[in-house]
Amino acid sequence: MNRVRAWLVTTLLLVGACAGFFLYKVKKVSADDFKHHDNNFKFQNGDRATDFHALGMIDRGRNTFRYATFGDEDFWGGTLQLHKAIEGQKLGGIGGGVSPATALAVGLKVDVDALPPSLLRQLKQGKVNLNDPAVTVALLKLNAVVGLTGFFDHSGNLKSLGTQCALCHSTVDNSFAPGIGHRLDGWANRDLNVGAIVNLSPDLSSVAKVLNVSESTVRTVLNSWGPGKFDAELFTDGRAFNGTKSGAVLIPPAFGLAGVNLHTWTGWGSVTYWNAFVANLEMHGKGVFFDPRLADATRFPVAAQNGFDNVRSDVDEITPKLADLHFYQLALSSPLPPPNSYDHAAARRGKEIFNGRAQCSSCHVPPLFTEPGWNMHTAQEIGVDDFQASRAPDDRYRTSPLKGLWTHEKGGFYHDGRFATLMDVVNHYDTFKSLHLSNQDKKDLVEYLKSL
Ligand code: HEC
Ligand code: HEC
Questions:
Q1: Which DSSP state fits 341?
Q2: Which end of the chain, N or C, is surrounded by fewer C-beta atoms within 10 Å?
Q3: Residue 110 per-residue DSSP state
Q4: Which residues line ligand 2 (CB under 6 A)?
Q5: Model confidence over 293-314: pLDDT tens digits?
Q6: What is the pLDDT of residue 46?
């Protein structure tokens, strides 16, 4: 009897334990389930949705910045026939072709991450002929030339060429060789000779027509730009020269722009305004652009005559990319200077002068180093001529954000590079504003500028 009772109790206990475990499990699963739904909801609508969305935008924006041509190959390849100049007569193009050595010499950069290991090995061993245009074409095929995309037919022949933002606004870290390395997006390519590259085109008659001048005048103007410079305003007002000096301006950095109100040297508009401007009017991508300020035929004769104030392409390859592109650009932070690239104690003293006696911070407000608000000044306020300011709607210069100055010393400072060094900039302010800075003050100020 006792045995039967013991057996019954054991069975009951076992069944009970199983039922309890089962119930516990079921309850746990349903609780998890609930949590899971909650997560799903949060994922689609809450903070995590924002994080996820932001990462997606950066990813797509980076892709646009580096690789999108916006359909501009119909202009650079189709109209200007630049791809023919690159491949040269031997490969079915025109002229001698562009060798990798020439491409690097005009400031084009090669993305080392796009090169297969076998090619890297051959390059290291000096087995690649850098004087052969066929190698340039092979690099284009690998999508390894920063800012240029080759378009190939089924037989592998170069058929067209497009340009990207990265052409002017990225460089490489030279980690493999000079001009060959990992991409640095947002860094101004001050080696790039845009004028010389465009001048390779065998047919600039379309540009001549837009500007209402002869083709040889177009070539003279392009030759006047020099490395690190471009003249976006030329295609609005046709004013190529400031007296005898070229009207081209330096390529500015495209990092550290978050929080900055107006952009370009002369404050044409916001980042996304300018992105649309460039993609439509300068790169000749296919999109929509609207700015009635350009309809003013007195100030902007070229733009008014060509209807640049209201561009409507049949297919819009630009507008759908603007949001992500904008977001990516705002996400590009200013690179920090190498720790040994400036004197830390002097920089600390320079900071005091910047914010104090020299009154730099009245315009360059830290930590943005431009004014929150309408960050614009007349030429008289900063002691320079107003040629470039007068080519933009507000007749002013935008207070340049100063972070990462150390990345773009080449080509000089101010919009046209008129000050070769930071010391020249400081001397200019010292004289113009009668600051009475000592030589030591000036040196300290320069060290501070290098530290930003
Ligand atoms: C041919 C060279 C070139 C290409 C290509 C180019 N830019 Fe620029 N970019 C410039 C120059 C030069 C300026 C200065 C323009 C001025 O002030 O007149 C500039 C200015 C800018 C600025 C303003 C930066 C600041 O200081 O506030 C932004 C943003 C910018 N570009 C984004 C882009 C984007 C996005 C693309 C691609 C859609 C692009 N650029 C393509 C040369 C280029
Ligand atoms: C009245 C406002 C104002 C004051 C004060 C001022 N700046 Fe500037 N700064 C500007 C503007 C505007 C520019 C853009 C000039 C141009 O586009 O050519 C500029 C440009 C610069 C640049 C060149 C940036 C580049 O990318 O080429 C440097 C460097 C600079 N300022 C440093 C200083 C220092 C140092 C002081 C103090 C001694 C100072 N600034 C005082 C308005 C000001």
A1: G
A2: N
A3: E
A4: 265, 358-360, 362-364, 377, 381-382, 397, 399-400, 402, 405, 413-415, 422, 425-426, 429, 445, 449
A5: 999 999 999 999 999 999 999 9
A6: 84
CA distance 340 to 361: 25
**pTM score above 0.85:** yes
The model's pLDDT over 144-161, given as tens digits with 9 standing for 90+, comes to 999 999 999 999 999 999
Look at residue 370 and give its three-state secondary structure: coil
pLDDT digits (tens, 9 = 90+) for 109-139: 999 999 999 999 999 999 999 999 999 999 9
- Paired with 419 in beta bridges are 413
The residues near 40 (Cβ < 8 Å, ≥ 6 apart) are none
Rg (CA), the chain: 29
Task: Provide CB contacts within 8 A for 338, sequence distance 6+.
Answer: none
For 303-326, letters b (16+ CB in 10 Å) and e give bbebebbebebeebbbeebbebbb
Task: Give how far Cα 434 sits from Cα of 347, 384, 443, 445, Å.
Answer: 22, 15, 17, 16
Helix (H, G, I), strand (E, B) or coil at 299: coil
In which residue are the tokens 């700015």 written?
291
CB 86 within 8 A of CB 136: yes
Q: Which of 37-41, 53-57, 219-223, 366-370 has the lowest mean pLDDT?
A: 37-41
Q: 264, 280, 300, 332: which to mutate for ligand 1, most atoms within 8 A of CB?
A: 264
Residue 259, both tokens? 């929080």
* % helix, strand, coil for the chain, step of 5: 50, 10, 40
